[in-house]
Specification:
This protein is of the alpha+beta class. 37% of the residues lie in helices and 27% in strands. The chain has a domain of 230 residues: FAD/NAD(P)-binding domain (3-Layer(bba) Sandwich), CATH 3.50.50. The strands form four sheets. It has an eight-stranded mixed sheet with strand order 6-5-14-15-16-13-17-20. The protein has a six-stranded mixed sheet with strand order 8-2-1-12-19-18. Bound molecules: 3,4-dihydroxybenzoic acid.
Length: 391
């Protein structure tokens, strides 16, 4: 088979790239190692930045998001006995939307199916070849066991941190940076109305806790737990008790409403950046090039920002035979990648507690400054609600 852009990965990055290129009349084939059911049911974060929402709107992908999502004007930052609202609207005139990545993915799949997009789900043995040449190609075994080859002008690696694209960058050209954190998140989804109107990020000496949500009837909550935590040791009651303590149940009359837990998982936390994001005719976008810890919900937004730069770069390359945007893609994308890498690290290290009492005092001092100083709050608001795509 032949196409203009072979896209490895049918998560939000690959699907959005295929959509934006499709609008320009550029032909793509999307391959994905998981099944479509798996991709459409995996649970991911649920906060869309201002610029993500605008981009989805501009490309006809925002209808259900505006119907079913919820606009939030800020977040709560809290520590024992105090809760502060950081109001993004008044600080930086931007808001965020609560709408699950799973829902964004469903909307993208529906749009691509309407456009007649060619997909291969459930593929195995994917390998990228001759990425330094003008005739790169991808080989894989399709879901029915047939060896398959796609020849393309360009390969887009949107296949996450475990996909083949990251590893297709030769060792001689790639640089990597990594931070592994000494804690994980226990995440739960519960069939209960959220006990808060906007997200709560809570510092507590027992560990960080967060109250997020997916809808008016579904809550999403997280607890800091040690690495390698056995999920079997966390009964539903133990989870709700820990959430109640850390989120301040009973404080100023606030109550955490428990409910049936429908999903439980442990998420490791790490930061990772690989550069460059382009080598020859292989371009990386999203988690294939960088991982952020979940605090601040930057992963999906960063993938969208990469693709918003990559689509015009590939359009110019394939239609205009001009190379400037493609040449600058990696450097331009990495400016924002490093900003979000720093922000996610900063939120993570400010809020997660450890054994060192000196660190705890520094964290509390930082939190109090952010909550009480307009300059401090504005820094958080600008980064959380999202910097412009081309930042
Ligand atoms: C969610 C996850 C995050 O990491 C975050 O900072 C905010 C929300 C979520 O899953 O809803």
């Amino acid at each position: 088979m032949r196409t203009q852009v072979a896209i490895s990965g049918a998560g939000p990055a690959g699907l959005l790239l295929s959509h934006l290129l499709g609008e320009q009349g550029i032909d793509t084939i999307v391959i994905e190692s998981r099944t479509q059911d798996y991709v459409l049911s995996r649970i991911r974060a649920g906060i869309l930045e201002h610029s993500t929402v605008r981009l989805l709107d501009e490309h006809g992908l925002g209808q259900r998001l505006h119907r079913e999502g919820h606009e939030h004007r800020g977040i709560y930052l809290q520590w024992p006995h105090e809760r502060h609202h950081i109001d993004f609207r008044s600080l930086v005139d931007r808001s965020v939307w609560v709408y699950g990545q799973t829902e964004v993915t469903k909307d993208l799949v529906a749009a691509r199916e309407r456009a007649g997009q060619q997909f291969y789900y459930g593929v195995s043995d994917t390998a990228l070849h001759d990425v330094e040449s003008d005739a790169p190609y991808v080989t894989f075994t399709d879901a029915s066991g047939t060896p398959t080859r796609i020849d393309a002008a360009v390969i887009a690696g949107c296949d996450g941190s475990f996909g083949p694209s990251r590893a297709a960058m030769p060792d001689a050209v790639r640089n990597t940076w990594e931070r592994v954190y000494p804690y994980s998140w226990l995440g739960v989804l519960a069939d209960v109305a959220p006990s808060t109107d906007e997200l709560i990020y809570a510092w507590h000496q027992d560990g960080f806790a967060m109250h997020s949500m997916r809808s008016s009837t579904v809550s999403r909550l997280y607890l800091q737990v040690p690495n390698n935590t056995d999920i079997g040791a966390w009964s539903d009651d133990r989870i709700w008790d820990a959430l109640a303590v850390r989120l301040g149940h009973g404080q100023d009359g606030w109550e955490l409403r428990p409910g049936p837990i429908t999903d439980k998982s442990v998420l490791p936390m790490r930061s990772y950046v690989q550069t460059p994001m382009r080598h020859g005719n292989l371009f990386l976008a999203g988690d294939a090039a960088h991982i952020v810890p979940p605090t601040g919900a930057k992963g999906l937004n960063l993938a969208v920002a990469d693709v918003a730069l990559l689509a015009p770069a590939l359009t110019q390359l394939l239609q205009g035979k001009r190379t400037e945007l493609a040449e600058h893609y990696s450097d331009t994308a990495l400016r924002r990648v490093w900003r979000c890498t720093h922000f996610s690290w900063w939120m993570t290290t400010m809020l997660h507690t450890g054994a060192d009492p000196f660190d705890a005092q520094l964290q509390l001092s930082q939190l109090k400054w952010v909550a009480s100083s307009e300059a401090g709050a504005m820094g958080l608001a600008e980064n959380y609600a999202g910097l412009p795509i081309g930042f």
